[in-house]
Specification:
mainly beta, seven-stranded mixed sheet, seven-stranded antiparallel sheet
Length: 523
């Protein structure tokens, strides 16, 4: 089929968020079967592309004219005022003049192509909307011509981004937008696993400072935005105090830490829902080092007395303390304000804390009141917050300072039951009886630690065991047995202590008598 010649026209096809940005010379408007068609390869349903004509081929004489309805006079004035182009449009007055400027690939840049598209977007009309099928969006435009394609998709609160403006000649079927977007991953440090302990699950003692890490990425297509920001939105369970500060580290694509980037994160707290935000101006950061590809944000939060505690594996297998984070981010390069309408999926981690379930009995398994215990970690006695006669919880530093309901000693009551809430797993504790009930001997100290298991995402407990030396028992309970008897030797008869007491008196008396006799002889 005959090809109609068109004046040489250099045009860049620019996309966002991962841009296909190149300058190409389109020397014809093809009048083949594909002449009035533009196809965009994007295997994501639900998007809306609209093609707006800028230039048309108006006759067989190869002349270029403005598309019908295009505000050409205002457009030329805007091009002349835009400082991006310098004085390149100072002398233009016709469509052919404008086409001549942008087709000069030796004197036209990718940056100028992007600016040209942004200016044109303010003056276009009479658009053609796309249809979708089999991973492609098709725009059946009415005429062969040069088109500005605008992504009109509403991506508010979606993990998706709009394409930047696309400039394309009809009949070109190689348009493949690559939409880039940032990612967020939240992790918690499993304290007994050292530096390799980052993951989705942690377990701690109440009062511990728990470490969190949030990793976010930067899409390379940020360069096509006037403003690009994103914000970490982090919500902690009520079992955590909100952090006061955070620290950020920056890395390139090779994982090399970048030391020349200066940034002090500002935490904006919302105590109402126990959340906070940290915002990043990505364009400002990239101005310091254009190789930034990843940001790691670290903070610690204290596990407090409101934390959910596991008392029984079967009934409390989901008694965790969830912590959730997500990003809101700029996702439309057509919006010069950089509004954060994009939203990543939530990333969630879980922290666990446990209960020691104690029972004080005699050798007949009868409950005993009046026994006194201390819980030790190493040689240190742990301070406890007394909730009621049976329940004690690991005290926080603030509670210890206030010195209300604080004790270091558990005293059993009539039923012999006691619970110590908020202990860690994989930690060596000692339960030491400091005073036995009347008529009973003290029991030996019990050294123990808990071990557990979780489902893969850390949200549910699957195993809880207590280890006492070489013995492992299912659950998290200990039974402390007291036995009756004197600590002095006994023959089983009565009056033994009285006998020893009288004998002692006789010995003392004999000593006095002997001394008296010696003094009498001297006299």
């Amino acid at each position: 089929m005959k090809m109609k010649k068109f004046a040489a026209l250099a045009a860049a096809t620019i996309m966002t968020v991962s841009a296909v940005a190149a300058t190409s010379t389109f020397s014809v408007f093809a009048t083949t079967e594909n002449a009035n068609k533009i196809v965009i390869n994007e295997n994501v349903e639900g998007k809306t592309y609209v093609a707006y004509p800028i230039f048309n081929q108006t006759s067989a004489t190869n002349t270029i004219d403005w598309a019908n309805g295009f505000a050409s006079v205002s457009f030329i004035d805007a091009l002349k005022k835009d400082t991006t182009f310098g004085n390149k449009f100072e002398a233009v007055s016709t469509a052919a003049d404008v086409a001549g400027v942008i087709s000069n690939k030796d004197n036209w840049s990718e940056k100028e192509t992007a600016a040209f598209a942004k200016v044109a977007a303010k003056f276009v009309s009479n658009g053609t909307e796309s249809t979708y099928a089999n991973g492609q969006y098709t725009l059946n435009v009415p005429n062969a011509g040069y088109y500005l394609i605008i992504d009109k998709t509403d991506n508010t609160d979606k993990d998706n981004a709009n394409s930047a403006y696309i400039l394309n000649v009809s009949g070109k079927l190689t348009v493949t937008p690559k939409v880039g977007k940032p990612k967020l991953t939240k992790e918690i440090k499993h304290n007994e696993n050292g530096d390799n302990g980052w993951g989705v699950v942690g377990d701690n003692q109440i009062g511990d400072d728990v470490e969190f890490r949030i990793t976010t990425t930067i899409p390379s297509e940020v360069q096509y935005y006037d403003t690009y920001t994103y914000t970490i939105n982090d919500t902690l369970s009520k079992g955590f105090d909100l952090p006061d500060d955070a620290e950020c580290f920056f890395y390139d694509k090779n994982g090399t830490k970048l030391t020349d980037v200066t940034f002090t994160p500002v935490i904006v707290k919302n105590p109402t829902d126990n959340s906070f935000k940290i915002q990043f101006d990505i364009k400002t950061l990239l101005a310091q080092n254009q190789n930034i590809d990843k940001i790691e944000t670290y903070y610690t939060a204290k596990l407090n007395g409101n934390a959910k505690v596991v008392a029984n594996k079967d009934t409390d297998s989901k008694n965790n303390n969830p912590n959730t984070a997500y990003l809101t981010y700029s996702n439309n390069p057509q919006d010069e304000s950089g509004k954060e309408n994009g939203k990543t999926p939530e990333s969630k981690v879980y922290d666990w804390t446990f209960t020691l379930v104690g029972s004080k009995v005699n050798e007949d398994n009868d409950p005993l009141a009046g026994a006194k215990f201390q819980l030790k970690k190493g040689i240190s006695v742990i301070k406890l917050y007394k909730i009621n006669d049976n329940d004690y919880r690991i005290a926080t530093a603030e509670e210890i300072a206030a010195d209300t309901n604080i004790t270091d000693t558990i005293i059993t009551v009539r039923d012999g039951k006691f619970n110590i809430l908020g202990i860690d797993d994989a930690t060596d504790y000692t339960l030491e009886e400091t005073e036995a009930p009347s008529e009973y001997n003290k029991a030996d100290a019990i050294s123990f630690k808990l071990s557990n298991g979780y489902v893969s995402d850390g949200s549910e407990l699957t195993k809880l065991e207590i280890k006492n030396g070489e013995t492992t028992t299912d659950g998290n309970g200990v039974t402390v047995v007291n036995r009756k008897g004197s600590e002095l030797p006994s023959t089983g008869g009565i009056g033994t202590q009285i006998f020893y007491g009288v004998g002692g008196a006789i010995v003392v008396g004999a000593g006095v008598l002997l001394i008296t006799k010696k003094r009498a002889k001297k006299d």
